Amino acid sequence: MTTNTVLFTPAGHAALVSAYPALPCGLNHGLVGHPLLTRAALEELAASLPASHVEHSIGDVPVNQDPSATKVVPLTAADVVRTIDTNRCWMVMKKVEHVPAYARLLDALLADIANLVIPLTGPIVRPESFVFLSAPNSVTPFHMDPEHNILLQIEGGKTMNVYPADSTEMVPQEAHEAFHRGAHRNLVHRDAFEAQARPFAMQPGDAVYVPVKAPHWVQNGPEVSISFSVTWRSRLSDGEARLHLVNHQLRKLGLQPALPGQSPLADQAKVSAHRGFKAVTHGIKRALGKQPDRTAY
Question: Please, which of 131, 150, 160, 228 could form a disulfide with 200 given CB 3.0 to 4.6 Å?
Fold first, then answer.
Protein backbone atom coordinates (compact mmCIF):
# COMPACT_ATOMS: atom_id res chain seq x y z
CA MET A 1 0.00 0.00 0.00
CA THR A 2 1.48 3.32 -1.00
CA THR A 3 1.55 6.24 1.40
CA ASN A 4 -0.90 8.25 -0.75
CA THR A 5 -3.55 5.51 -0.89
CA VAL A 6 -6.95 6.91 0.06
CA LEU A 7 -8.53 4.71 2.70
CA PHE A 8 -11.87 6.28 3.64
CA THR A 9 -12.75 9.63 2.09
CA PRO A 10 -13.53 12.76 4.17
CA ALA A 11 -17.19 12.40 3.18
CA GLY A 12 -17.05 8.84 4.47
CA HIS A 13 -15.63 10.03 7.76
CA ALA A 14 -18.49 12.52 8.11
CA ALA A 15 -21.09 9.86 7.32
CA LEU A 16 -19.61 7.48 9.88
CA VAL A 17 -19.57 10.15 12.59
CA SER A 18 -23.26 10.87 12.01
CA ALA A 19 -24.32 7.21 12.09
CA TYR A 20 -21.97 5.31 14.41
CA PRO A 21 -22.57 3.12 16.32
CA ALA A 22 -26.31 2.47 15.97
CA LEU A 23 -27.16 3.23 12.33
CA PRO A 24 -25.89 1.91 8.99
CA CYS A 25 -24.34 4.32 6.53
CA GLY A 26 -22.61 4.45 3.18
CA LEU A 27 -18.95 5.43 2.81
CA ASN A 28 -16.36 5.60 0.04
CA HIS A 29 -12.87 4.13 -0.08
CA GLY A 30 -9.79 4.06 -2.29
CA LEU A 31 -8.81 0.37 -2.29
CA VAL A 32 -10.13 -0.59 -5.73
CA GLY A 33 -7.25 -2.26 -7.57
CA HIS A 34 -5.24 -2.77 -4.39
CA PRO A 35 -2.61 -5.47 -5.09
CA LEU A 36 -3.69 -7.58 -2.10
CA LEU A 37 -7.28 -7.71 -3.37
CA THR A 38 -6.82 -8.83 -6.97
CA ARG A 39 -8.04 -12.26 -7.99
CA ALA A 40 -4.48 -13.53 -8.37
CA ALA A 41 -3.55 -12.36 -4.87
CA LEU A 42 -6.73 -13.84 -3.41
CA GLU A 43 -6.09 -17.20 -5.05
CA GLU A 44 -2.67 -17.22 -3.39
CA LEU A 45 -4.22 -16.17 -0.09
CA ALA A 46 -6.84 -18.93 -0.29
CA ALA A 47 -4.14 -21.56 -0.85
CA SER A 48 -2.23 -20.36 2.22
CA LEU A 49 -5.07 -20.31 4.76
CA PRO A 50 -5.96 -23.21 7.06
CA ALA A 51 -9.26 -24.93 6.32
CA SER A 52 -10.77 -23.44 9.48
CA HIS A 53 -10.39 -19.96 7.97
CA VAL A 54 -12.31 -20.70 4.76
CA GLU A 55 -16.03 -21.25 4.23
CA HIS A 56 -17.67 -21.75 0.86
CA SER A 57 -20.96 -23.09 -0.45
CA ILE A 58 -23.39 -22.80 -3.34
CA GLY A 59 -24.46 -19.17 -3.55
CA ASP A 60 -27.73 -19.72 -5.41
CA VAL A 61 -29.81 -19.89 -2.23
CA PRO A 62 -32.96 -18.26 -0.81
CA VAL A 63 -32.82 -15.37 1.62
CA ASN A 64 -34.19 -17.75 4.26
CA GLN A 65 -31.53 -20.40 3.72
CA ASP A 66 -31.52 -23.17 6.32
CA PRO A 67 -27.84 -23.49 7.30
CA SER A 68 -28.21 -27.26 7.71
CA ALA A 69 -29.23 -27.53 4.04
CA THR A 70 -26.21 -25.65 2.67
CA LYS A 71 -24.52 -27.42 -0.24
CA VAL A 72 -20.75 -27.38 -0.69
CA VAL A 73 -18.96 -27.85 -4.00
CA PRO A 74 -15.97 -30.25 -3.74
CA LEU A 75 -13.32 -27.67 -4.64
CA THR A 76 -10.22 -26.43 -2.88
CA ALA A 77 -10.29 -22.86 -1.64
CA ALA A 78 -7.88 -21.78 -4.37
CA ASP A 79 -10.03 -23.51 -7.00
CA VAL A 80 -13.11 -21.66 -5.77
CA VAL A 81 -11.32 -18.35 -6.35
CA ARG A 82 -9.96 -19.46 -9.73
CA THR A 83 -13.36 -20.59 -11.05
CA ILE A 84 -15.62 -18.07 -9.30
CA ASP A 85 -17.04 -16.83 -12.63
CA THR A 86 -18.79 -20.15 -13.26
CA ASN A 87 -18.86 -22.26 -10.08
CA ARG A 88 -22.00 -20.63 -8.53
CA CYS A 89 -20.22 -20.34 -5.17
CA TRP A 90 -20.18 -17.93 -2.28
CA MET A 91 -16.95 -17.84 -0.27
CA VAL A 92 -15.50 -16.11 2.77
CA MET A 93 -11.86 -16.14 3.84
CA LYS A 94 -11.79 -15.41 7.57
CA LYS A 95 -9.23 -13.75 9.81
CA VAL A 96 -6.95 -12.95 6.89
CA GLU A 97 -5.00 -10.59 9.17
CA HIS A 98 -3.01 -13.68 10.19
CA VAL A 99 -1.13 -13.01 6.93
CA PRO A 100 1.15 -10.03 7.74
CA ALA A 101 0.41 -8.01 4.61
CA TYR A 102 -3.34 -8.17 5.27
CA ALA A 103 -2.75 -7.32 8.93
CA ARG A 104 -1.03 -4.11 7.84
CA LEU A 105 -3.97 -3.25 5.58
CA LEU A 106 -6.44 -3.88 8.41
CA ASP A 107 -4.39 -1.79 10.82
CA ALA A 108 -4.23 1.10 8.35
CA LEU A 109 -8.00 1.08 7.79
CA LEU A 110 -8.79 1.00 11.50
CA ALA A 111 -6.22 3.71 12.24
CA ASP A 112 -8.03 5.88 9.69
CA ILE A 113 -11.27 5.77 11.71
CA ALA A 114 -9.99 5.19 15.25
CA ASN A 115 -10.39 8.80 16.36
CA LEU A 116 -14.01 8.70 15.17
CA VAL A 117 -15.16 5.49 16.87
CA ILE A 118 -13.10 5.21 20.06
CA PRO A 119 -14.71 8.23 21.77
CA LEU A 120 -18.13 6.65 21.21
CA THR A 121 -17.64 2.95 21.95
CA GLY A 122 -14.24 2.61 23.60
CA PRO A 123 -11.01 1.04 22.35
CA ILE A 124 -10.98 -1.12 19.23
CA VAL A 125 -10.53 -4.74 20.30
CA ARG A 126 -10.34 -8.05 18.44
CA PRO A 127 -9.91 -6.50 14.99
CA GLU A 128 -10.44 -9.00 12.17
CA SER A 129 -10.69 -8.91 8.40
CA PHE A 130 -12.56 -11.06 5.90
CA VAL A 131 -12.62 -11.41 2.12
CA PHE A 132 -15.88 -12.32 0.38
CA LEU A 133 -16.12 -13.67 -3.16
CA SER A 134 -19.50 -14.30 -4.77
CA ALA A 135 -20.40 -15.77 -8.12
CA PRO A 136 -22.87 -13.83 -10.28
CA ASN A 137 -26.36 -13.50 -8.77
CA SER A 138 -25.39 -15.17 -5.48
CA VAL A 139 -27.33 -14.47 -2.29
CA THR A 140 -25.95 -14.10 1.21
CA PRO A 141 -28.87 -15.16 3.44
CA PHE A 142 -30.52 -13.04 6.14
CA HIS A 143 -28.24 -13.07 9.19
CA MET A 144 -26.53 -11.02 11.87
CA ASP A 145 -22.91 -10.68 12.99
CA PRO A 146 -21.47 -9.84 16.42
CA GLU A 147 -19.05 -7.10 15.32
CA HIS A 148 -18.95 -3.54 14.11
CA ASN A 149 -18.37 -4.04 10.40
CA ILE A 150 -17.38 -1.95 7.39
CA LEU A 151 -17.73 -3.81 4.09
CA LEU A 152 -15.66 -2.38 1.22
CA GLN A 153 -16.68 -3.27 -2.34
CA ILE A 154 -13.65 -4.05 -4.54
CA GLU A 155 -15.02 -5.69 -7.70
CA GLY A 156 -18.50 -6.11 -9.17
CA GLY A 157 -21.75 -4.92 -7.67
CA LYS A 158 -24.17 -6.02 -4.98
CA THR A 159 -27.04 -4.69 -2.90
CA MET A 160 -26.65 -4.82 0.88
CA ASN A 161 -30.02 -4.77 2.63
CA VAL A 162 -29.64 -3.65 6.25
CA TYR A 163 -32.37 -3.71 8.91
CA PRO A 164 -32.69 -2.08 12.34
CA ALA A 165 -30.42 -3.63 14.96
CA ASP A 166 -32.99 -3.05 17.69
CA SER A 167 -35.96 -4.82 16.09
CA THR A 168 -37.37 -7.39 18.51
CA GLU A 169 -39.71 -8.54 15.74
CA MET A 170 -36.81 -9.66 13.56
CA VAL A 171 -34.61 -10.87 16.39
CA PRO A 172 -36.50 -11.76 19.60
CA GLN A 173 -34.54 -11.63 22.84
CA GLU A 174 -34.37 -15.41 23.02
CA ALA A 175 -32.68 -15.40 19.59
CA HIS A 176 -30.08 -12.89 20.80
CA GLU A 177 -29.40 -15.05 23.83
CA ALA A 178 -29.06 -18.21 21.74
CA PHE A 179 -26.74 -16.44 19.30
CA HIS A 180 -24.31 -15.52 22.07
CA ARG A 181 -24.30 -19.13 23.21
CA GLY A 182 -23.27 -20.36 19.76
CA ALA A 183 -26.42 -20.53 17.62
CA HIS A 184 -26.00 -20.04 13.86
CA ARG A 185 -25.96 -16.50 12.47
CA ASN A 186 -28.80 -17.07 9.96
CA LEU A 187 -32.21 -15.60 10.81
CA VAL A 188 -35.79 -16.09 9.61
CA HIS A 189 -36.75 -13.45 7.06
CA ARG A 190 -40.35 -12.39 6.43
CA ASP A 191 -41.72 -10.24 3.62
CA ALA A 192 -43.16 -7.87 6.22
CA PHE A 193 -39.62 -6.90 7.22
CA GLU A 194 -38.96 -5.26 3.86
CA ALA A 195 -40.63 -2.00 4.87
CA GLN A 196 -37.77 -1.52 7.35
CA ALA A 197 -34.95 -2.45 4.98
CA ARG A 198 -32.34 0.08 3.99
CA PRO A 199 -30.79 -1.03 0.68
CA PHE A 200 -27.26 0.05 -0.24
CA ALA A 201 -26.44 -0.43 -3.93
CA MET A 202 -22.69 -1.02 -3.93
CA GLN A 203 -20.16 -0.63 -6.73
CA PRO A 204 -16.34 -0.68 -6.50
CA GLY A 205 -15.25 2.15 -4.23
CA ASP A 206 -18.40 2.01 -2.09
CA ALA A 207 -18.49 0.80 1.50
CA VAL A 208 -21.21 0.22 4.11
CA TYR A 209 -20.98 0.39 7.88
CA VAL A 210 -23.19 -2.31 9.44
CA PRO A 211 -23.93 -1.92 13.17
CA VAL A 212 -23.41 -4.76 15.62
CA LYS A 213 -26.02 -7.47 14.98
CA ALA A 214 -28.03 -5.41 12.50
CA PRO A 215 -29.79 -8.08 10.39
CA HIS A 216 -28.85 -7.99 6.72
CA TRP A 217 -28.78 -9.97 3.50
CA VAL A 218 -26.99 -9.43 0.21
CA GLN A 219 -28.03 -9.82 -3.42
CA ASN A 220 -25.07 -10.08 -5.77
CA GLY A 221 -25.21 -8.49 -9.22
CA PRO A 222 -24.65 -10.19 -12.60
CA GLU A 223 -20.86 -10.16 -12.20
CA VAL A 224 -18.41 -11.66 -9.73
CA SER A 225 -18.26 -9.67 -6.50
CA ILE A 226 -15.20 -9.20 -4.30
CA SER A 227 -15.51 -7.42 -0.95
CA PHE A 228 -13.13 -6.78 1.94
CA SER A 229 -14.61 -6.58 5.42
CA VAL A 230 -13.06 -4.77 8.39
CA THR A 231 -14.52 -5.70 11.78
CA TRP A 232 -13.88 -4.92 15.40
CA ARG A 233 -15.40 -5.37 18.84
CA SER A 234 -15.76 -2.66 21.46
CA ARG A 235 -16.70 -2.23 25.09
CA LEU A 236 -20.20 -1.47 23.81
CA SER A 237 -20.52 -4.70 21.79
CA ASP A 238 -18.93 -6.75 24.58
CA GLY A 239 -21.35 -5.32 27.13
CA GLU A 240 -24.35 -6.02 24.89
CA ALA A 241 -23.25 -9.64 24.54
CA ARG A 242 -22.73 -10.08 28.27
CA LEU A 243 -26.15 -8.59 28.97
CA HIS A 244 -27.83 -11.24 26.81
CA LEU A 245 -25.85 -14.01 28.52
CA VAL A 246 -26.97 -12.80 31.94
CA ASN A 247 -30.57 -12.48 30.76
CA HIS A 248 -30.43 -16.06 29.54
CA GLN A 249 -29.40 -17.25 32.99
CA LEU A 250 -32.22 -15.25 34.55
CA ARG A 251 -34.69 -16.76 32.09
CA LYS A 252 -33.50 -20.25 33.06
CA LEU A 253 -34.44 -19.38 36.65
CA GLY A 254 -37.99 -18.64 35.53
CA LEU A 255 -37.60 -14.87 35.52
CA GLN A 256 -38.57 -12.50 32.70
CA PRO A 257 -35.69 -10.03 32.36
CA ALA A 258 -36.39 -6.57 31.01
CA LEU A 259 -35.50 -5.80 27.42
CA PRO A 260 -32.03 -4.29 27.03
CA GLY A 261 -32.30 -0.52 27.29
CA GLN A 262 -35.47 -0.46 29.37
CA SER A 263 -33.49 -0.14 32.61
CA PRO A 264 -29.98 1.22 31.92
CA LEU A 265 -28.92 0.96 35.57
CA ALA A 266 -29.99 -2.69 35.75
CA ASP A 267 -28.26 -3.37 32.43
CA GLN A 268 -25.05 -1.84 33.72
CA ALA A 269 -25.23 -3.86 36.93
CA LYS A 270 -25.69 -7.12 34.99
CA VAL A 271 -22.75 -6.38 32.70
CA SER A 272 -20.49 -5.37 35.59
CA ALA A 273 -21.43 -8.52 37.50
CA HIS A 274 -20.68 -10.71 34.48
CA ARG A 275 -17.31 -9.04 33.89
CA GLY A 276 -16.40 -9.47 37.56
CA PHE A 277 -17.47 -13.12 37.59
CA LYS A 278 -15.52 -13.90 34.41
CA ALA A 279 -12.42 -12.10 35.73
CA VAL A 280 -12.47 -14.37 38.80
CA THR A 281 -13.07 -17.59 36.85
CA HIS A 282 -10.41 -16.71 34.28
CA GLY A 283 -7.94 -16.05 37.10
CA ILE A 284 -8.67 -19.44 38.63
CA LYS A 285 -8.25 -21.19 35.27
CA ARG A 286 -4.92 -19.48 34.65
CA ALA A 287 -3.74 -20.49 38.13
CA LEU A 288 -4.62 -24.08 37.26
CA GLY A 289 -2.80 -23.84 33.94
CA LYS A 290 -5.99 -23.91 31.88
CA GLN A 291 -6.94 -21.68 28.97
CA PRO A 292 -9.77 -19.28 29.93
CA ASP A 293 -12.85 -18.95 27.74
CA ARG A 294 -12.87 -16.32 25.02
CA THR A 295 -14.27 -12.94 26.00
CA ALA A 296 -18.02 -12.75 25.38
CA TYR A 297 -19.09 -11.89 21.85
Answer: 160
